Amino acid sequence: MGGVRPELGYELELRREGKAVFYSPKMPGKRDFAPTSLPVFFNPFSKPNRDVTVLFIATWFEGFKIRICDALAGVGVRSIRMLLETDVTGEVTANDISPKACELIKLNIELNKLGEFVEVTCMDANELLARCGREKPRYDYVDVDPTGSPAPFIENGVRGCRREGVIGVTATDMPALVGAKLESCLRKYDAKPLRTPFSKEIALRILAGFIARSAARLGIAAKPILSFSKDHYIRVFTKVERGRKLANEALKRVGWISYCPSCLTVYTAERFESPVIICKSCGRQIDYAGPAWIGELANRDLAEKMYQKALGSPELYRESLKLLDGLRREDYSLLGYHPVNYLARIFGRPPIKPSILAEKLIELGYRASTTHIDPSGVKTDAPLDALRSIFGKLGSEL
Ligand SMILES: C[S@@+](CC[C@H](N)C(=O)[O-])C[C@H]1O[C@@H](n2cnc3c(N)ncnc32)[C@H](O)[C@@H]1O
Ligand SMILES: [Zn+2]
Predict the structure, then answer these.
(1) Alpha carbons within 13 A on the beta-carbon side of 13
(2) What is the distance in A from the centroid of ligand 1 to the CA of 329?
């Protein structure tokens, strides 16, 4: 079924993912190949990104028929899966700037007999999305899945969303977002990252905050409804509502995050306030990140429904069940988390299983949960002394 297609000029490989059967460029045998070196981008390891996207739209838009823009579509597998695996997808614009990608998308759409539902366009995503609302109707869902930073596509992505629409955004430029490349984060997201034990959560918050700030300039409120971090990337799904008042409300959830590495206290401050730079518990001078989203990053009920949907078709979503299980267990009212090994080192005690530590904290009246971001992490509002006391007691029982 694969082989060189003379009309394309490179070798193809037939693949299956979810309900889609599609061609990708032939993959080199080694696991650590660069998808960007292929004639058309395809990364099989991003299946969970596509699984969660499909489950998200099937759940969030249940009962509706929606128009979707897959603005950076690659081989088109995401568009195909949204059509085949959900009842909500009515029409899709599958777009890519690369003529080679567009040729392959057309071939794959034909292979799945979806021609009547898909328009393939070969444009710069910004140009396509900027036309929405003038020459073209806006979309219910816009997907932005670039290699690297999505920052250049956010403003037009939001512009391309209808009232009550959603934009789903991937970022793979993790070194910038987790604080390993400060200047890159400042340049792309106009935000300061911070190296902490929960830097990946701060990365999600910087991206969500950037989307909210970009939307607010257009009089649009953008609030995250589902966010996750996995492997080499993060993804945020943001609900879009129009209106200056709503945009002002959303901006109240954008601010500063400070962290004290001595007593592990996390502080937030609203944007118009100054970030906390002296720890109120131990007096140490501390550093901060932001502007970043300081409100909830996801909705637990939504994550639960998505998990249940995935459980109903494990043959399609097996690789993503663990991630979805992690998402539905998380307390989104808490900001930051402590890896148990880090706590164990500080207290000089053996580590405690995160789920047991969270249970114990809840028994003691604190808020606590595990986090999908780090299997060894615990989110809590408990102070250092309470954690130390649990490590003292439970540690000796281990
Ligand atoms: C990460 S890949 C997309 C993967 C795809 N969404 C998936 O799930 O398999 C990024 C794609 O964006 C395309 N691209 C890069 N810059 C673009 C632009 N300015 N407008 C539209 N597409 C662009 C690239 O050709 C590439 O195919
Ligand atoms: Zn402190």
Answers:
(1) 15
(2) 32
